[in-house]
Design brief:
single chain; alpha+beta; HIT family, subunit A; five-stranded antiparallel beta sheet; two-stranded antiparallel ribbon; 6 helices; 7 strands; globular
Length: about 190
């Protein structure tokens, strides 16, 4: 509040734009500076070899530290560090291959089976109403780590694609990744 000419206080209106940025758009801003590590590629491997690959390093960690939900014989399931939704899993072959066509018949079958089990487990734990499944093959197709194949399993719920990710470019997550990993690992069917 600032005093006006007759000494009365008047309410100041909030600044809705920043000078030099064009026309005001009437949108609020929610700043998420922690996402800059992803945008800058700070944890992205510098090369294409297995020694720089996070999907090759993760299996050497214990499950909690690596956010591993399940280990199969030829592939494993891990939480995405930069999830689109809570419970966003990645199914990765242990072997360092970039392209789907490089998988063996056995690896292809296990990646498919782990993807199905991931969907069932997420549904049981969180009541997901749908899923986005996909592999981005190559950097030009959107693969953040193109050198190591990984299948995305993204749970979806009605209304989860509200204004936050679409306009705000922000995804609120209701749980820590370690808590999500524990819930999914405990619910994963035992062989």
């Amino acid at each position: 509040m600032t005093p006006d000419d007759d000494g009365q206080a008047e309410e100041q209106q909030p600044v809705l734009h920043q000078d030099g940025l064009g026309e005001p758009d009437q949108l609020d801003r929610l700043w998420t500076p922690h996402r800059m590590a992803y945008i800058r590629g700070e944890s992205k491997p510098s090369g294409d070899g297995p020694q720089e690959c996070p999907f090759c390093r993760v299996p050497a960690l214990d499950d909690e530290a690596g956010l591993v939900v399940h280990r199969g014989r030829l592939a494993y399931v891990v939480l995405n560090l930069y999830p689109y939704n809570s419970g966003h899993l990645l199914v990765c072959p242990f072997r360092h291959v970039a392209d789907y066509t490089e998988l063996t018949v056995e690896e292809t079958a296990e990646v498919a089976d782990l993807t199905r089990t991931a969907m069932r487990t997420i549904r049981a734990v969180s009541g997901a109403q749908g899923f986005n499944l996909g592999m981005n093959q190559g950097a030009v197709a959107g693969a953040g780590i193109a050198a190591h194949l990984h299948q995305h399993v993204v749970p979806r719920w009605s209304g989860d694609a509200n204004f936050m990710p679409v306009i705000g470019r922000t995804k609120p997550l209701p749980q820590l990744l370690t808590e999500t990993r524990s819930l999914l690992a405990e619910a994963w069917p035992r062989d």
